[in-house]
Amino acid sequence: MTQPRPASQTRPRFHLAFPVDSLERARAFYGDLMGCPEGRSSDTWVDFDFYGHQIVAHLAPEECQAVTTGGVDGKAVPVRHFGLLMAWDDWETLAERFRAAGVDFIIEPYVRFKGEAGEQGTFFLRDPAGNALEFKCFRDEGGIFARG
Length: 148
What we know:
Elements: E1 15-20, H1 23-33, E2 38-41, E3 45-50, E4 53-59, E5 69-72, E6 75-78, E7 81-86, H2 88-100, E8 105-112, E9 120-126, E10 132-138
Parallel strand pairs: 1-4, 7-10
Antiparallel strand pairs: 2-3, 3-4, 5-6, 8-9, 9-10
């Protein structure tokens, strides 16, 4: 899998700050495993280039908590989560990287809404602090916001 790619200069980038209980484990997960380059940091936070977007892991163990779930396609999906919309091949490569590293999936990689508007590959996992992440890809990018 290639290094994260910068977003187009014409497309806004998102910024997300989230709690972690260990900056070392955050660096190992986002930096080493996912390949997200590290930006600025201090003793209490670290920036990562999350495929052209800025995410910031803030040391706040008291904020790391269990995730509530809601039903989507018959699965218990973590309500609070973030992630990426990826190209199909990149999504498959990342899923394999997580499998090879022994990461436990909340929801194993699968294709949901087969044959419907919005058909997508998806999987969910937690980072070491318990934050839920979703990675997905669409057969047809025109289906990202399609109504069923």
